Amino acid sequence: MRFLSLALTAVSMVAYMAVPSSADIIAFSGGACDGDEGLNVPCDGSCHQFTGRESFEVVIGGLHCVTFFEDTGCNSLIATFPNEGNSLCSNVNTGTAVGSFRCSANDSCDD
Fold first, then answer.
1. Where in the sequence is the signal peptide annotated (predicted)?
2. Is CATH 3.60.15.10 the classification given to domain 21-104?
3. Higher-confidence residue: 85 or 15?
Protein backbone atom coordinates (compact mmCIF):
# COMPACT_ATOMS: atom_id res chain seq x y z
CA MET A 1 0.00 0.00 0.00
CA ARG A 2 2.86 2.34 0.81
CA PHE A 3 4.44 1.72 -2.60
CA LEU A 4 1.14 2.52 -4.33
CA SER A 5 0.86 5.79 -2.40
CA LEU A 6 4.40 6.84 -3.35
CA ALA A 7 3.78 5.89 -6.98
CA LEU A 8 0.58 7.96 -7.13
CA THR A 9 2.36 10.93 -5.55
CA ALA A 10 5.15 10.71 -8.14
CA VAL A 11 2.65 10.51 -11.01
CA SER A 12 0.74 13.50 -9.62
CA MET A 13 3.92 15.56 -9.37
CA VAL A 14 4.93 14.75 -12.97
CA ALA A 15 1.44 15.63 -14.24
CA TYR A 16 1.52 18.93 -12.30
CA MET A 17 4.94 19.84 -13.70
CA ALA A 18 3.80 19.05 -17.27
CA VAL A 19 0.90 21.53 -17.13
CA PRO A 20 2.07 24.87 -18.58
CA SER A 21 1.90 27.83 -16.24
CA SER A 22 -0.84 30.38 -16.81
CA ALA A 23 1.30 33.05 -15.19
CA ASP A 24 1.62 35.33 -18.19
CA ILE A 25 1.88 38.89 -16.85
CA ILE A 26 3.25 40.37 -13.62
CA ALA A 27 2.81 43.98 -12.40
CA PHE A 28 5.29 45.74 -10.09
CA SER A 29 5.13 48.70 -7.73
CA GLY A 30 8.40 50.15 -9.06
CA GLY A 31 8.80 51.82 -12.44
CA ALA A 32 11.45 49.36 -13.70
CA CYS A 33 9.76 46.02 -12.84
CA ASP A 34 11.16 46.27 -9.35
CA GLY A 35 9.61 46.83 -5.95
CA ASP A 36 6.65 44.76 -4.81
CA GLU A 37 5.63 42.07 -7.28
CA GLY A 38 1.95 41.50 -7.97
CA LEU A 39 0.26 38.21 -8.68
CA ASN A 40 1.08 36.20 -11.78
CA VAL A 41 -2.09 36.42 -13.87
CA PRO A 42 -3.09 34.99 -17.25
CA CYS A 43 -2.87 37.15 -20.36
CA ASP A 44 -6.35 36.15 -21.50
CA GLY A 45 -8.29 39.40 -21.81
CA SER A 46 -9.63 39.27 -18.26
CA CYS A 47 -9.64 42.38 -16.05
CA HIS A 48 -7.06 42.70 -13.25
CA GLN A 49 -6.27 45.36 -10.64
CA PHE A 50 -3.29 47.66 -11.22
CA THR A 51 -3.68 50.04 -8.27
CA GLY A 52 -0.29 50.77 -6.67
CA ARG A 53 1.64 49.41 -9.68
CA GLU A 54 3.88 51.30 -12.10
CA SER A 55 5.33 48.72 -14.48
CA PHE A 56 4.72 45.24 -15.87
CA GLU A 57 6.33 42.41 -17.77
CA VAL A 58 4.73 39.81 -20.01
CA VAL A 59 6.52 36.60 -19.10
CA ILE A 60 5.57 34.50 -22.13
CA GLY A 61 6.98 35.21 -25.60
CA GLY A 62 5.27 36.90 -28.51
CA LEU A 63 3.71 40.31 -29.06
CA HIS A 64 0.91 41.18 -26.65
CA CYS A 65 -1.25 44.23 -26.10
CA VAL A 66 -1.87 45.48 -22.57
CA THR A 67 -4.70 47.98 -22.12
CA PHE A 68 -4.94 50.21 -19.04
CA PHE A 69 -7.98 51.79 -17.45
CA GLU A 70 -8.49 54.60 -14.94
CA ASP A 71 -11.12 52.72 -12.92
CA THR A 72 -10.77 49.31 -11.25
CA GLY A 73 -13.33 47.61 -13.53
CA CYS A 74 -11.60 47.99 -16.93
CA ASN A 75 -14.15 50.55 -18.19
CA SER A 76 -12.45 53.94 -18.55
CA LEU A 77 -9.67 53.51 -21.14
CA ILE A 78 -6.40 55.39 -20.61
CA ALA A 79 -3.79 53.82 -22.89
CA THR A 80 -2.58 50.68 -24.66
CA PHE A 81 0.95 49.31 -24.52
CA PRO A 82 2.29 46.74 -26.99
CA ASN A 83 4.75 44.39 -25.31
CA GLU A 84 7.07 41.87 -26.97
CA GLY A 85 6.94 39.43 -24.07
CA ASN A 86 9.92 37.41 -22.86
CA SER A 87 9.94 39.44 -19.60
CA LEU A 88 10.49 42.78 -21.36
CA CYS A 89 9.70 45.47 -18.79
CA SER A 90 7.26 48.28 -19.64
CA ASN A 91 6.86 51.38 -17.46
CA VAL A 92 3.28 52.61 -17.30
CA ASN A 93 3.58 56.39 -17.31
CA THR A 94 0.14 57.59 -18.35
CA GLY A 95 0.02 60.87 -16.44
CA THR A 96 -2.93 59.64 -14.39
CA ALA A 97 -3.62 56.91 -11.87
CA VAL A 98 -4.20 53.45 -13.36
CA GLY A 99 -6.73 51.21 -11.62
CA SER A 100 -6.93 48.12 -13.84
CA PHE A 101 -5.67 46.44 -17.02
CA ARG A 102 -6.40 43.76 -19.60
CA CYS A 103 -3.75 41.75 -21.43
CA SER A 104 -4.48 40.38 -24.87
CA ALA A 105 -2.79 37.10 -25.78
CA ASN A 106 -1.95 38.56 -29.20
CA ASP A 107 -1.10 41.97 -30.64
CA SER A 108 -4.76 42.99 -30.97
CA CYS A 109 -5.93 45.51 -28.41
CA ASP A 110 -9.56 44.60 -29.14
CA ASP A 111 -9.48 41.32 -27.16
1. 1-23
2. no
3. 85
Q: How far apart are CA 18 and CA 65, in angstroms?
A: 27
109, 70 Cβ separation under 8 angstroms: no
Measured between its terminal Cα atoms, the distance across the chain in Å is 50
Domain boundaries, given as residue ranges, for the chain: 21-104
Number of H helices, E strands in the chain: 1, 8
Neighbouring residues of 63: CB distance < 8 A, sequence distance ≥ 6: 82, 83, 84, 85, 106, 107
Widest Cα–Cα separation across the chain: 63
The pLDDT-based confidence of 107 (bands split at 50, 70, 90) is confident
